[in-house]
Amino acid sequence: MPVTPAHPRPLQESRQPIRLGLKENWQQFALLVLVNVFVGGMVGLERTVVPLIGTEVFQIGSEVVIFSFIIAFGVVKAVTNLVSGLLADRYTRKRILILGWLVGIPVPFLLGWGPSWNWILLANVLLGISQGLAWSMTVNMKIDLVGPRKRGLAMGLNEAAGYGAVGLTALLTGYLASAYGLRPEPFYIGIFYTGAGLLISWFLVRDTRAHAQLEGRQISKTSVGEKAHTPKTHWVFAETSWRNKTLFSVSQAGLVNNLNDGMSWGVFPLLFVSAGVGLEGVGWIKAIYPVVWGVGQVITGPLSDRIGRKPLIVWGMFLQALGHVVIGLGMAHPFAAGMLGSVLLGMGTAMVYPALLAAVSDAAHPSWRASSVGVYRFWRDMGYAVGALMAGVVAAVLGLEWAIHAAGLLTFLSGVLVWRSMQETLPGR
């Protein structure tokens, strides 16, 4: 009697019971941390080198035109954040993560070999889409896995991995550029990042939407009174953007925080090179900001689980404002001012970043949390474009140093607004 061959069973996600918690999901959590190292490294490719490609390779004399790559990146990433959050509440997180890597594949090739500035702008459009999809999903998937008790720690580790990689890659590209030239050698790193990130995301990462659904069944309302339901997109946008005072405070602080980053991204290389700092020195100044920002979140993330989100946000904004003062007034000694100011900016951002994400996750119910996080990240990353545009206009009229002063003033006022309007969101406080 002939034997009928058994049909192979299709590959499926693990059927193990769904549990919330960092310890219960540490293996998947660790994989997502590694993935976010590669996601952050893709942004780090541009921090030191690309503004100088504009001035030295393509001979662009306008600050606004040079900063256009940051504006393109910020606007596209902001819109993609919004879309990715909505998609994450409707489809699987894993599919969107993989899509983000697929979109990012051409980026290092365009940056390294693009024949005109328009190709650099195209690379930043694709990078913005890729970041909006991939980084958003690493955030949402970690929030899903850990549940409410370790949310600050989860966000601290996620952002530490991403922005630590931003800083280290900025430093490495600075060294490669000083040794081999501005293109294409510094961008070889990006080819490795996209390949490794895509393979890990496709074959090893598992979807986490079931974890969010489990948490949603356990919570009737959040710490600021938001309840479970399936809202329309415009309702989530309005609630996160202006109707809920706490979510509004968080969203505007996120925008101003990334306004600082967008300003420094474009202004710092041009300012410090014009002040006589070499490429390696600029690489250090550009690296120390995101490295301190990244490593510091390992401390500030869990600290927000203890003392609350609001104190870290308020004082983090004030510390960033102080960093701007140090840089803006210290250009008689540019390298020292750049290093000290960047350390203060990094420390302040480390205090703010995980606390902001945790506050949104506290305030929004799990049934619409991914959409709310997407709206917050829309406003936050719109800060890249606002910061670059503001810096370009102010620099053209008053000079590069005044762009730093303007960012410092806005940062201080943002901290005051959070202090006056935000309600503490940490459950139990």
From TrEMBL:
Keyword Membrane in annotation: yes
PROSITE patterns in the cross-refs: MFS, SUGAR_TRANSPORT_1
Keywords: Cell membrane, Membrane, Transmembrane, Transmembrane helix, Transport
Localization, UniProt: Cell membrane
Residues spanning the membrane: 29-45, 65-84, 96-113, 119-139, 160-181, 187-205, 312-332, 338-360, 381-398
InterPro entries: MFS (IPR011701), MFS_dom (IPR020846), MFS_trans_sf (IPR036259), MFS_Transporters (IPR050171), Sugar_transporter_CS (IPR005829)
Domain Major facilitator superfamily (MFS) profile residue range list: 1-209, 246-429
This protein's GO CC annotations: plasma membrane
Superkingdom classification of source: Bacteria
GO molecular-function term, one example from the UniProt record: transmembrane transporter activity
Signal peptide boundaries: none
One Pfam family linked to the record: MFS_1
Topology in the lipid bilayer: Multi-pass membrane protein
Protein name stated in the entry: Inner membrane transport protein ynfM
Organism: Cesiribacter andamanensis AMV16
Encoding gene (name): ynfM
